[in-house]
Amino acid sequence: MKLYVSVDMEGITGLADYTYVTAGERNYEAARQTMTKEANTVIEQAVQSGASEILVNDSHSKMNNILFEELHEEANLISGDFKQFSMVHGLDNSFDGVCFLGYHSRASMPGVMSHSMSFTVKTMYLNDVEVGEIGMNAYVAGYHGVPVIMLAGDDGACREIEALIPGVVTAAVKQSISRSCVKTLHPKKARALLAEKTMEAVTNRKEIKPLTPPDNPILKMEFNNYGQAEWAALMPGVTIIEGTTMVEYKSKDMLEAFRAMLVMLELACQAKYC
């Protein structure tokens, strides 16, 4: 069995605000330790449950947060921030399942540090389905025919994926009190929960169906201000929906839609005085 693990940071146990997830802030180095330990818990349990190959993708910010020398030796790691498919780079149809670890809810929703890829984004839609990082990444997995079998993060992230994927296994390691305050499990209890849920997900993986994306998906992205939409619309094929800060892009498949999202985000971030 071959397993893919995408590890974000905002949904890791105990992390409550930007001081934990921003390099150079006072809580960041401790948070890296917790992030790495939780990845190791998932890897170890997956190995015990029959995984013969595990690929971990560091999926937060500059994507070099996991302490690679302390990562479980049975996993390979993708580390670094220029990736054509960002949080799901390296994922293809050779995998048997995907786990999302440390995930958070989408922009404009309750949840600790909720956002969608960038703070420029207010909402995103794939056809008529509102999505954030969870939805976009799960649809890429589905494009390859691979199911997302587990998500661990805050309670908002768990609710979000449960609405998208019937039967997906979730592990809520903390509850959001506000966008920068959580009620969290103790790390030891959180790791025990992660081990339990990883075993459940791997055992039941064949019962969970891939989230199949639509053919020729239409991607819509609503930005926080018009300047960001103007920058995003510099990309060929993108139009601004009149009277809104939302842009639209008609793509040939899910992979093109995903890469279009990344390009528009980079362009939108060029807008100043936000």
UniProtKB/TrEMBL annotation:
Keywords carried by this UniProt record: Aminopeptidase, Hydrolase, Metal-binding, Protease, Zinc
GO molecular function: aminopeptidase activity; metal ion binding
A Pfam family the protein falls into: Peptidase_M55
Keyword GTP-binding among UniProt keywords: no
Residue numbers binding Zn(2+) 2: D8, H60, H104, E133
Binding site residues for Zn(2+) 1: D8, E10
Protein name: Aminopeptidase
Organism listed in the record: Kurthia sibirica
